[in-house]
Design a protein that fits this description.
Blueprint: H1 9-13, E1 15-18, E2 23-26, E3 42-47, E4 58-62, E5 65-70, E6 84-93, E7 98-107, E8 109-114, E9 117-122, E10 130-138, E11 142-151, E12 156-164, E13 182-186, E14 191-195, E15 204-213, E16 224-226, E17 230-233, E18 242-251, E19 263-266, E20 290-294, E21 303-311, E22 334-338, E23 345-354, E24 366-369, E25 381-388, E26 391-397, E27 406-415, E28 425-431, E29 435-438, E30 445-455, E31 460-463, E32 467-471, E33 485-489, E34 492-496, E35 505-516, E36 519-524, E37 540-543, E38 551-560, E39 574-578, E40 594-599, E41 604-609, E42 621-630, E43 635-643, E44 649-651, E45 660-669, E46 678-683
Antiparallel strand pairs: 1-2, 3-4, 3-6, 5-12, 6-11, 7-10, 7-12, 8-9, 8-11, 13-14, 14-17, 15-16, 15-18, 18-19, 20-22, 21-23, 23-24, 25-26, 26-29, 27-28, 27-30, 30-31, 30-32, 33-34, 34-37, 35-36, 35-38, 38-39, 40-41, 41-44, 42-43, 42-45, 45-46
Length: 685
Amino acid sequence: MNRPRGTTVAAACAVVLATAGGLLSVAPSASAATVTCASPVFKRTFYANTTFSGTPKRTDCDSTINENWGTRAPGYKGMPANNFGVRWSMSRDFGSGGPFSFTVSARDGIRVYLDGVRKVDVWKDGSATVTRTVNVTVPKGKHSLRVDYVNWTGAANVKFGYAPRTSASVDKVKPLVPTGTTVRYDATSTSTKVSWARNKEMDLAGYRVYRRLKGTSFPAKPIATTTATSWTDTTVPKDGYVYYYEVRACDKAGNTSSGTADIAVTTVDRTAPAAPKGVDKNWSMNYPDRVTLYWDENKEPDLAGYRVYRSTTLPVALTPENLLSGDKPTYYSYYSVPVPQTGDVYYYVVTAVDTHGLESAASSYAMYYTRDKTPPVETAFNLRAEEGEAGVTLTWDPSEGTSRDFAGYSVFRRRTTAATGTAPEEVGKGVKGTTFTDVAPPPGATYIYYVISLDHAGNGGPSSDKVTVTVAGNTTAPAALTGLTATPEENGVTLSWDASDAPGLTHYRVLRGTLSDGQWTYAPVEDPTTWRPKEIKETTFHDMVPADGQEARYVVVGVDQYGNQLTPDTGATVVAVTALDLRPTAPPATGGPFSYVSAGTSGYISWGFVDSTGNGNGSPATDILVRRWNPRTGEFDLINTSPSSSSSSCWDLTQPSATTVYYRLSVRYADGTESDATEAVAVTY
């Protein structure tokens, strides 16, 4: 028999132990009792006999049983090449246990014991290596393994291994429930870390982590699968609910352990409820005085209630100003409230609120139309009245409140002698400021004044206090105007003057002078639509009179609320002007057979024809001839010929603008003769 493998000098000083966590070293010792090997490393003992008796020759630690000494003795002092024995022993935790296979290969004898019970027995001096595999069921928990090997003569080799059988058809044993489970929730990161101790099963495939909401079951699918002993859940909802975690171990055969004891965490609530649904189904075809809203109930477990908001604009802002239901949410999924009768369109939305104060987005809106029945709040406080040259001036203090649809103040006046039930006279309307002047109250009477605010729908607000004024009136005319000028133009005379600041002034009046028998007389320029003296508000006026080269005089006066005004005899300003002369240079017309001839500013010319045989020989009239003076050629141009029997007017479609136009009309007879002409003049814009 050859010498066994030797042990180096270094090995004689230190024995290297292979463990699950790394290499451990222990000092060599001749006494087996003094050597300790960490599970699952075997303690190996060498004997110089086959009965494993007496003092061992060597004791050390061996992570695997796989030796081939050949014909040599093991390299320890005192070990023979034949008739020696080696014993390996250890104790380990098999977790849940289950089916294992023990595989041996040896020459000569080998025996394997589990908890002292022999499971493999190949005990024979032979010349060949014998290999054998035995299936063993290992109970759960901690058990001892012992391997005895002897070499009687010849070559020596030994090998032993054990492993779980992981076929699903063979292994029906579940792993043990993981132990040492802890769950820690971090409110800052809103994550949950789950940790546990490592299982002892040799066929362990990994772990499954499950999460469930309180009141529900764990789902069939885990939220995580890992081979580590901890996992961080970064997906746990931020809704303030209670969630439970458990861990299950699974092996390579697909067996899964029961779950660990449920451990709860309470998450922080950063998830608002869903917006309520069904609010937009509320509506009314009329103008309701009150609305009742209904909506679908929310299903969140931590629902505290609902809030109702209203606005006249979209989107409805979720502000305290728009909140109808108060700070405490309403529990029920309906809400009834009067609608302000302001004439606005009102929009309503609903939000859901949870017990942590988180509020949902706004629901879809419900819309209602209203009629404006709400008076404005503006009030004319401390009403005062004072009569002056401008009239009776009312003054009041600014209103403390304001309305969005305020249209202005109305001022009312009523005689104190008016019969009961007589409606007051509205003398001012739409007044936006805090003062108003009644410019023309008839004098000699006593009046009661008061002021009421109005909105655009005509609703009246609170009335002011009433004030009483006895109106004296006045007879003082506004002072004479300054800066009066008269400028002749082709189509008349343009007057301008300085604005008057006379109290009570209501308008200006222009008087046109006429010279007769060496005396100038003045008459107001009339408004062509009313035939009354024209009331002029500006400080310019254009008098459309013919440019006939005649001298003219004008007076412009200011008129107050009582009609007081100056005259040329009492100091009114008079201005003289000579009109431009655009009259025809042709011989004057001597008269024609017309009752009248008229020319307008828009080119319309009309006439009345009297004598149809005016040529003296009885020849009938055939045509009316219309001519217009052409200052460039110095002649009257024929612009229209109309049948005398059917026409009494025509249009001058090319009439010049902004000038004085002279026309002459005559009659043409059948014998070719022509009557004398009748002249007409038009002043154009």
